[in-house]
Design a protein that fits this description.
The structure holds two protein chains of two kinds. By secondary structure, chain A is of the alpha/beta class. Chain A is built from 14 helices and eight strands. The chains are: A alpha/beta, B alpha+beta. Chains A and B meet through α1, β1 and α2 of A and β1, α2, β3 and β4 of B.
């Protein structure tokens, strides 16, 4: 008596049910669960789910507009990015706040992949290493090709951008990996794969684009085979404290401006992801804040944009890219204010028993 | 804890056939103002067990909700939505307990 207690905090509606479920199961040992709903209300729930969960977007039309915006942003800006930064479209992992040259950044991006795999505990052992990988939000396939080469595995990448998918495939062919990696245009909220196909589910900086985090995580879990690693590296906002219902107005303001330029739906916190993963009964859930290790990245991107090559490329690419570039100082501001976090969340799907 | 949350929880104690709804023992409750969002309320309505909400609200001292589960036309009434909003989102159980309806097991609730 009195040894168990329930949190009274519900930080955000995104995954609030799962937050409650996770805290109650942690604290009370599965003595409380979500009630079963009758079939008709589950059906209604799925129809209306978009409206509830996609906090920033209006249901239906909003999601389509967002997807189109994402596809167009990357169609437009991918070439320019690749030109200056190479084929990895994610943050680099740095030791400390040193000014690095572009080549240092490229190796930092490789290091990000390696540190991520290490954090998750992915084995290089020939028996245990991944053989079937999915790269969710694959960009031009940097991670896919790297992982395929590292493990000798097959990798499939999905992106909303036709330009990226095509470029990813060309690069794969050019690098002799056409038999190991393939790319297609597809929606991460509706992955075109059967259940349990992959033993490594990789989402490197794509989670921030997903308007329905619940569906996004469900799909990651669905396509994961028993024993698979699920790895999410993404931008989040800071965790809310128990007394908070939501972020402060100025914080929301800043995020909204960034959302606008990068075609991002409403942000969530890494705690929200943990709760979603817990709701799927996944094991070995680990989360970390790597904001300090990526600190040099945005200032470096800004510097690269201000070079002659950067400016001319931006002008050639188009308005969406320029808008994106203008939003970069906002990202720096967000990190400085400890509002934006660079988070890694990893877990494993349980093995089948017997 | 909001009543929205309470409405989603059920006792999972082994052997219990119907653990929903959990009864409320209210020691300390408070009302916190929450921005009124009619779209959210309309979306949530179909997921809510109405009787459980009415009973829970009553145990928190709020008896304004209609006993009968309203039909969808009520969802257009601002007056109804405001009552629904208050009960669902603004009433908070700060201290007390949730009680399994079959076993009587208490789950204490306190401020985190």
């Amino acid at each position: 008596m009195g040894s168990t207690s329930l949190f009274t905090c519900e930080p955000s509606f995104l995954g609030f049910q799962n937050k409650l479920l996770s805290t109650t199961t942690c604290e009370t040992g599965s003595l409380i669960r979500l009630r079963q709903r009758n079939p008709t209300s589950i059906h209604i729930r799925q129809r209306r789910r978009r409206g509830v969960m996609a906090a920033a977007a209006a249901p239906g039309a909003g999601m389509e507009g967002l997807k189109k915006g994402i596809a167009e942003l990357y169609d437009e800006s991918s070439g320019m990015w690749e030109d200056i930064w190479g084929d990895h479209m994610h943050h680099g992992f740095y030791d400390s706040n040193v000014t690095s040259s572009i080549s240092d950044h490229r190796s930092a991006q490789i290091r990000m992949i390696e540190e991520t795999l290490r954090f998750a505990g992915v084995s290089e052992d020939p028996i245990k290493k991944p053989m079937a990988i999915v790269d969710v939000g694959c960009g031009i396939g940097g991670s896919s090709r790297y992982l395929a080469r590292k493990y000798g595995a097959k990798c499939q990448g999905i992106t909303l951008s036709p330009v990226q998918a095509q470029r990813a495939q060309s690069l794969a062919s050019a690098q002799g990996l056409a038999d190991k990696v393939s790319f297609q245009v597809a929606d991460a909220l509706n992955q075109p794969f059967p259940d349990g196909q992959f033993d490594l589910v990789w989402s490197m900086e794509s989670g921030e684009h997903m308007p329905d985090k619940t569906k996004f995580v469900s799909e990651l879990v669905r396509v994961a085979a028993p024993g698979a690693f699920i790895i999410i590296v993404t931008w989040c906002h800071r965790d809310l404290s128990p007394s908070e219902d939501s972020l402060q107005p100025e914080e929301k303001n800043l995020l909204n401006k960034i959302c606008d330029s990068y075609y991002l739906p409403a942000w969530c916190s890494s705690a929200d992801y943990v709760n979603l993963l817990q709701s799927h009964s996944l094991q070995d859930i680990k989360v970390a804040d790597w904001s300090e290790y990526v600190a040099p990245f945005w200032p470096a991107v800004i510097r690269s944009a201000l070079t002659w090559k950067g400016i001319t490329s931006l002008l050639r690419s188009g308005w969406k890219s320029i808008k994106g570039a203008l939003a970069m100082p906002l990202m720096v501001e967000g990190y400085k204010k400890n509002l934006i976090k660079f988070a890694i969340i990893t877990c494993r799907k349980p093995e089948l028993i017997g | 804890m909001r009543l929205l949350t309470h409405n989603m929880l059920s006792s999972n104690i082994k052997g219990v056939s119907n653990g929903f709804p959990l009864r409320l023992d209210v020691e300390n409750s408070v009302s916190k103002e929450v921005e009124f969002n009619p779209d959210f309320l309309r979306n949530m309505f179909s997921k809510i067990d109405w009787k459980a909400l009415v009973d829970a609200a009553r145990s928190m001292g709020y008896a304004e909700l209609p006993e009968e589960a309203p039909d969808s036309s009520m969802l257009d009434s601002d007056e109804f939505l405001k009552k629904f909003h208050h009960a669902l989102l603004e009433l908070h159980l700060d201290e007390g307990a949730l009680i399994c309806p079959e076993t009587g097991r208490r789950f204490p609730v306190n401020k985190a």
